[in-house]
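Postdoc handover notes: sequence design on the structure in folder B. Input tokens:
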């Protein structure tokens, strides 16, 4: 489908690009740390097996940042790759939005640290937090600044170092997560419609199903909180799984409906990479054929806010996504939060 053939959608919530200045994703970029942690490595830490991890999750290995490597380091590298791919210089960037649940520190924001690292001196900078759904939330926020003509170039990043909050003694969670960062440059580029719609949702009543209880104002760090392992990820896996399938399915359907699209018109479905069984359940129910669905979970595990950005970058780099293709992103994370976006690449 060519860009010029696209007519305005009847559903006003799908018409982002006709209500304001169109916002396109000029380019993406990603970075993962060098260290690979295999399932065999985890067999040395907890009572688990490569067979259990792979059959229950689809994960073979994940990346782990070095001790001195923080989220802003991963984020800055992903940002620099996106900037190079978009041919955008640091002084062109007006705004940096980083989605993360593992900031370098409570403040300053990771976006401010990235601003310094990449030399984007003109840019305003702030973080948002929507856990694994963060990248889509940040895309939607960034898009609003382009559409309203407030800014011309927005750098959106999804970055997490979840291995810094993983309880390496808890086999229920320590096998699932990895570190990484993905970034996108948003601009108005003539002839490109970019983000066609973004559907977001949240259910705060499920906050305790997947959380890190300690370290905030509710339960500041103390000897007791450390002893009780309150600073690590806690998750009810089964409840998260069930809710994720329902919410991702509903958001994906809503995004397609808003854009008056059938799933067969989507060239590539890019779901949050948490569990292969979740991805397959959502894709099947959306009516997607397996070859439409992009999966790189086997190599990176669940990288939280980086997940779909990392997958989108890889799908573009390997030619699975071509200019003009329609892409469906679908995400789910702690909060609970979820979202779906249709993008014309
Ligand atoms: O990014 C945010 C979204 N997060 C997610 O979407 C994660 C959603 N949840 C999941 O992906 C899955 O629920 C898990 C992969 C976390 C767990 O898979 P499951 O099929 O739901 O397993 P389960 O929690 O029902 O546990 C089954 C058994 C248990 O043993 P018992 O109680 O039946 O004896 C667990 O103790 O598997 C055991 N188990 C393990 N065994 C070996 C749990 N973790 C492991 C492990 N190795 N690593």
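Designed sequence:
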């Amino acid at each position: 489908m060519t860009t010029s053939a696209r007519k305005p959608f009847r559903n006003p919530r799908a018409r982002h690009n006709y209500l304001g200045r169109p916002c396109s994703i000029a380019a993406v970029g990603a970075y993962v740390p060098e260290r690979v942690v295999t399932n065999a490595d985890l067999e040395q830490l907890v009572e688990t097996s490569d067979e259990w991890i792979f059959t229950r999750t689809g994960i073979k290995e994940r990346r782990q940042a070095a001790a001195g490597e923080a989220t802003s380091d991963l984020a800055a590298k992903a940002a620099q790759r996106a900037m190079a791919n978009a041919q955008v210089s640091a002084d062109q960037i007006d705004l940096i939005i980083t989605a993360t649940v593992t900031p370098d520190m409570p403040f300053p924001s990771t976006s401010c640290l990235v601003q310094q690292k990449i030399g984007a001196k003109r840019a305003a900078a702030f973080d948002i937090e929507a856990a694994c759904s963060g990248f889509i939330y940040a895309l939607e926020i960034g898009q609003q600044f382009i559409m309203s003509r407030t800014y011309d170039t927005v750098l959106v990043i999804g970055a997490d170092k979840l291995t810094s909050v993983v309880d390496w003694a808890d086999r229920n969670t320590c096998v699932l997560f990895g570190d990484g960062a993905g970034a996108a440059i948003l601009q108005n580029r003539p002839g490109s419609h970019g983000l066609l719609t973004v559907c977001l949702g949240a259910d705060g009543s499920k906050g305790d199903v997947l959380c890190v209880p300690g370290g905030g104002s509710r339960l500041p760090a103390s000897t007791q909180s450390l002893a009780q392992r309150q600073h690590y990820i806690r998750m009810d896996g089964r409840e998260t799984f069930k809710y994720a399938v329902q919410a991702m399915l509903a958001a994906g359907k809503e995004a397609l409906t808003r854009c008056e699209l059938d799933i067969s018109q989507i060239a590539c479905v890019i779901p949050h990479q948490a569990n292969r069984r979740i991805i397959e359940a959502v894709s099947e129910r959306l009516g997607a054929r397996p070859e439409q669905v992009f999966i790189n979970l086997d190599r990176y595990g669940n990288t939280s806010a980086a997940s779909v950005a990392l997958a989108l970058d890889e799908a573009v780099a390997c030619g699975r996504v071509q200019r003009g293709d329609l892409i469906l992103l679908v995400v789910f994370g702690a909060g609970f939060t979820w979202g779906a976006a249709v993008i014309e690449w």
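Context for whoever picks this up: Residues 27 and 87 are 9 Å apart (CA to CA). Don't rerun without checking with the PI first.
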